[in-house]
Amino acid sequence: MRYGRFDDERREYVITRPDTPLPWINYLGSRDYIGLISNTAGGYSFYRDPRMRRLTRYRYNNVPFDTGGRYLYLRDADTGEFWSPTWQPTRGDLQAYTCRHGMGYTIIASTYRGVEARIRYFVPVDDPLEIWQLTLTNRRDRPVSLSIFSAVEFCLWDAQDDATNYQRNFNTGEVEIDDSVIYHKTEYRERRNHFAFFACSEPLSGFDTQRAAFLGPYRGWDAPLAVARGESFNSIAHGWAPMGSHHVELRLEPGQSHPAIFLLGYHENPPAHKFDPPGSQAINKSTVKPLIQRYLDGDAVDPAFERLRDYWDDLLGVFQVHTPDPHTDRMVNVWNAYQCMVTFNLSRSASLFESGIGRGMGFRDSNQDLLGFVHMAPRRARQRILDLTATQMASGGAYHQYQPLTKRGNDEIGGDFNDDPLWLVLSVAAYLKETGDWPILDEMVPYENLPGSEQPLYEHLQRSLTYTLDRLGPHGLPLIGRADWNDCLNLNVFSADPDDSFQTAPLKKDGTVAESVFIAGLFVLAARELVPIARKRGAEDDARQYHQAAVEMACRVQEHGWDGDWFLRAYDAFGDRVGSRACDEGQIYIEPQGMCVMAGIGLEDQRAVQALDAVADRLLTEHGIMLHHPAYTRYQIRLGEISSYPPGYKENSSTFCHTNPWIMIAETLLGRGDRAHDYYVRINPSAREPISDVHRCEPYVYAQTIAGRDAPTHGEAKNAWLTGTAAWNYVAITQWILGIRPTFEGLQIAPVIPGHWDGFEATRVFRGVTYRISVDRVGEGNAVRLTVDGQEIPGDIVPLPEEGIQDITVRVQLG
Ligand code: GLC
Ligand code: GLC
Question: Can you give the pLDDT at residue 403?
Fold first, then answer.
């Protein structure tokens, strides 16, 4: 069953009924000011940090679902009837409801008893505010007198404190009202230089800023007293729950339309000029008024929207494809790229599953997110690499997370996730291939942000590898530490205390025994990436050393990391096998099959084939490839959190979508395009759109997990949006299945596509040059014959062109 449709032309997903299985959201803003918005206008906004600078309040896990948002109410003065044009929070019987989620904007439209409303929500590219552009049209054959009430509930900035510290918070709330602008200034009197503003373009009949007054005693957002009676209370918040509500009255003739603009924004004042008049406690508004005025006048709004469109045209224009499969096109050209941008911006901080108060920027997460984003905004990728690197420890290890406002490592979580530093090598390698920005390797970057500890980025990469080599176990395989990529495979934690967090509990074992075959594979991949980088710097000895280290590690995997039919997952703290035929449960894991083959292990003998065939036999479901199987049916102290989840969920044997592209890539290395693309389609959100009632999450973005075969709700997705799934699927489809990948020498074109495809077309902007690529299948295999601007060339890499060349036409004969 569907709840909407794709509008590919406009790059929108159009939701056609408001009661989607879960709120289906979008993101507004892509830099400092960010908002989440659901298909019924739920969600919240923040400035840079969703915990410390949250503008509006949102109630996670509330009933009804999706409480807190950007609410508008309309009230018919003649009948007293009121409704929300966005459905929530009144949930009336709307006609012609649509929600169009687009690139950085959302448009919700509906009609109720002949009153048509359309609201376009977006954040301009350069300004820290969101615009709600409302248009009301009277489709009745008689005039209508309407009231509009807006409503947002302010968050008292620190979202964690806001949700817990009521003995203080009920006292601190403060606002100012000036014309039609409501200023939220809680704590401005003391150490904050920032405030929020909520402005309206229309003359006001009234306003409210105290929630209790607006809603009335024991009433909810679905029937605020002010709206029901058709008149604001002009309340001023002193403590309790500051909110913003404007009341506008208007009369519309039949057929008449009326626009109105609401602005919600964030502003900082210079500390020395906080107050006006100086010495008072009133906000100095002179710094923000011009900005507010510019957008309220209306003339600036449409151009700002056009600029947002151009911004996305440019980003998405870097890579466009036309293939025989509409799901591939739609995800590559629009939604997957878009999701990559969102995950790059937000890491795992704020979604409907991530509350914005828990997690900072993950070290491994952000490095992987960069893989899906680097081609769209290489400058921002560069900065991200340097920020991440600055949190690396002198040992080569990494803080597992850092805080976006301070860019410092998070002490509460610390390090010891032994895979972490290796991902830095992959992200830097991807960045270098994309940009050719070799000087970045000489950028001086500190360890743990400590002044005086600066070393070239290149040395940081070296230490990332050394960190693994310094921590080898009894079989010469990398020690796992607290966990590797799989946060829940906790082989040294041995927690029997329900109050422990698996992420931070003290390790009960000294960590000298449990080894990870996955890290071994990742190490080989990273070391192989570093070889040409070292060589390019003229560091031949380094290159030889890394090559040798990769070869040796690969041998150890072959010797101790092979279980007979597939790669073993790990050795536990007793030296026993994990992910082996010998186990009762969890006999085969997906991660080492993907990572080892990606690293080239087993390609020369038949092991890679065997391992991937075992994946197909034992892990594949119609809803993607499960993380391991059989699922753990009980808690196993020696394995940790992985066995804490009920069978089929999360790390206990769901389709953990992040890992599926590793298998797709591995399959392309074996030349098996049919399989690779089949796996791709199984978890492709667009391809799953017809089963939206099973999948339940948004059909336009990936979710982290899809419940596995052992779950009662097999096929049900959870944790949409903020997942490494976005970047890796993007890499798998664009670079390995379509086969268009940046290399140090030029753009490689080596498609491994399904046998029945007769080809495809693509445009790729690479290092400032536009490549127009057309691939024609001439035979069954994957061999490539390249014709570049009419000239046949050997190999599958289009060499970097001479200076000045802007466009290159590439014809590929594949067979
Ligand atoms: C979550 C984490 C990621 C981890 C994965 C598997 O997505 O953010 O770092 O690799 O779970 O446990
Ligand atoms: C839990 C989740 C895992 C996530 C981790 C991050 O362990 O299962 O997916 O990576 O929390 O804190």
Answer: 81
The pTM assigned to this predicted structure is 0.97
Atom 5 of ligand 2, residue of closest alpha carbon = 487
| Cα 433 to the center of its chain, rounded Å | 23
Q: Name the residue with tokens 């340097």.
A: 386
Atom in ligand 1 nearest the alpha carbon of residue 483: 12
351 pocket-lining for ligand 2 (C-beta < 6 Å): no
Identify which ligand lies nearest to the alpha carbon of 503.
Answer: 2
Q: Is the CB of 420 under 6 A from ligand 1?
A: no
Measured CA to CA, the distance from residue 418 to residue 697 in angstroms comes to: 32
Pocket test for ligand 2, best of 348, 651, 705, 722 (most atoms within 8 A of CB): 651
CB 365 within 8 A of CB 719: no
Q: Looking at residue 204, what is its pLDDT?
A: 98
In whole angstroms, what is the distance from residue 334 CA to residue 338 CA? 6
Q: Check pocket membership of 40 for ligand 2, CB cut-off 6 A.
A: no
Per-residue H/E/C for 776-812: EECCCCCCEEEEECCEEECCCEEECCCCCCCEEEEEE
Verify whether ligand 1 is closer than 6 Å to residue 362 (CB atom).
Answer: yes
Ligand 1 and 486: CB distance under 6 A: yes
- pLDDT band for position 18 (50/70/90)? very high
Tell me the residue ranges of DSSP E strands in 191-346: 194-200, 206-210, 242-252, 257-268, 319-322
pLDDT digits (tens, 9 = 90+) for 68-103: 999 999 999 999 999 999 999 999 999 999 999 999
Pairing relationship of beta strands 105-112 and 54-56 according to DSSP bridges: unpaired
Residue pLDDT, tens place only, 768-802 = 999 999 999 999 999 999 999 999 999 999 999 99
**Could you tell me which of 671, 656, 815, 814 has the C-alpha nearest to residue 737?**
671
- Interval 202-221: pLDDT, tens: 999 999 999 999 999 999 99
404-444: pLDDT as tens digits? 778 888 888 778 899 999 999 999 999 999 999 999 999 99
Residue 402's pLDDT band (cuts 50, 70, 90): confident
Q: Which of 416, 485, 488 to mutate to test the pocket of ligand 2 (most atoms within 8 A of CB)?
A: 488
- Please tell me the number of the ligand nearest to residue 364's CA: 1
Residue 49 among the catalytic residues: no
Contact predicate 713/735, CB 8 Å: no
Taking residue 774's Cβ as centre, other Cβ atoms within 10 Å add up to: 15
